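Predict the 3D structure for this chain.
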Amino acid sequence: MEMDIIMPSLNEEKGLGKLAKEIPAEEFEKRGIKCRVIIADGGSNDKTFEVAKKNSIKVIKSKRGYGIQYRNAFKSAKGDYIATLDSDASYDPKDLVRLYDYLIEKNLDFVTGDRLTNIKGRVMKKHHYFANKFLNFWVRMIYCVEVKDSQSGMWVFRRDILSRIKLRSKGMPLSEEIKIEAFKKLKAGEITIDYRPRLGKEKIRSFVDGSLDFFYLFWKRFRDLF
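Done. Predicted structure below.
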């Protein structure tokens, strides 16, 4: 059995260097899973590629865009399972093992991590935290999906589900879209995970990305009718 651990990247040499040492490959090997680490890069011009090469991380070059990068990487994935996290080291890779174990224990297709329930201190800026809560509310209202963290970037799922869901977003809304699809069409679950301060320069544009996420919820609902 194999698992592709995929991370979108854009100038993430600091975070990627830390994560490369934290990937729980041995824990997965105990479970009969061989891991392959992949970054879907949107045009880095720092030392991201050098860090990847040094740590035997596969690089998939892509046009820039959270959704575009993930969708391109999903097409190249060959493992039985896919796991995801951000390359800025804000997610602790050890939690991937917990998500995988939960997936197997509950016989699920998709499991996502909830950062918000146990978040500590100033790990996330206040306006980001409340924006996440705002989007969570609308995901529940529009789609009747009980997700506590609709914007989380840590997931573990069976690769074969990609043929049963529709992912159209080219940007940040893909994070909420994949959860909506999974919880509406598949056997899906959510567990709490740790969240840490990111390393490197922040890429998210709070107002712009938050607005795109919000309006995408309505666009998707309309698009799904046809």
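The longest strand covers residues 2-9.
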